Amino acid sequence: MDTVSELGLVWAKLILCGGAIAVAGTLLTRYADVIADKTGWSGAWVGLVLLATITSLPELATGITSVTLADAPDVAVGNVLGACVLNLSYVALLDLLKRGEPLFRCAGLEHMALAGFGVVMLGPVGLGLAIAQLPLAHGLGHVGWYTPALLLLYPLAVRSISRLERSGLSIQPGRVASRYPDMSLRKAALRCLAAAAVVVAAGSWLPFIATELAASMQWTRSFVGTLLVAFVTSLPELVVTLSAMRLGAIDMAIANLLGSNMFNVMILAIDDVFYVRGPLLGAVSPIHAISVMSAVTMSGVVIIALLTRPTGRALHLASWSGVALGCVYVINAYLLFRYSA
């Protein structure tokens, strides 16, 4: 097989994998809406716990496969951090598509806590990358010191946000009525699991496609992992977010994106456990620190926008907060493409 045919086959695999993830992500939204209706959970809680966990399964499957079978730690780390930046850029897309009342004026205040915990969890990752080559970077056995920190922070964040909701301090626009009144909770849960299985299978295939693509295009694994693989594994978040927005479930859409970021960062700790050669962040390119800082900056923009509730739109299209999110994403992508070694 000639080089052009081999390259075409690799891109075809990537498109096939992305298509499977996108279709499964669409189905996940429908069944999550049914589960929310049957259980009485709020849209934000469903977005944080159910959708964020399920839509992050591609990152989890890709990460574990990358650090074990594919021996591509840069793909694992780049995938997670790139997905975080992408998810925050999807908030900008929501802001652009939202008609009527601006996005940040109708979103629940509890999302500030989600974005804030995301920043706190990114802190150990950024520090871990910065001091990766120093003796104090080593933790317990082959895992880095940041792994136990992340494994403790995630459940703490979920518990804190749960208490916030129960306290009545969150602002909800009202739960969206189910569009599937004839579907039982059991049937919705089973179909949700089936869609999740498709997501896991496609996510497990991705690292091998990424490795082939990096070799064929002569791109670095850190670049491929952060931009291309991250985009494919983030397709469920994009599909779920757009589907939730069509249903009018704005809080579910935003909580899915910000909750996915929290879960994604915790995935780095799981990847570190499976990477037995030493601390994971010590085996990857320091270029990933750019994505960490981009995600922190974008999370800060979201927190400020939720707090100030801006009303104006740039060119009558998106708020200045949305424009800022988009600009940071473009700068992040350029720096990774330009300086990945």
| Envelope shape | globular
Q: Cα-atom Rg, whole angstroms?
A: 19 Å
Q: Tell how many strands the DSSP assignment holds.
A: 0
Q: What's the assembly state of these chains?
A: single chain
CATH architect. name: Up-down Bundle
- For CATH, the homologous superfamily is named as NCX, central ion-binding region
Helix content: over 70%
Would you tell me the structural class of the helices and strands?
A: mainly alpha
User: How many helices in DSSP terms?
Assistant: 13
Write down the CATH topology: A middle domain of Talin 1
- Low-confidence sequence ranges: 169-177
Query: What is the average of the pLDDT values?
Result: 82
Query: Strand portion, in percent?
Result: under 5%
Regarding CATH, which class? Answer: Mainly Alpha
Helix-strand sequence: HHHHHHHHHHHHH
Report, as a whole number of angstroms, the end-to-end distance. 29 Å
Number of domains: 1
Largest sheet: none
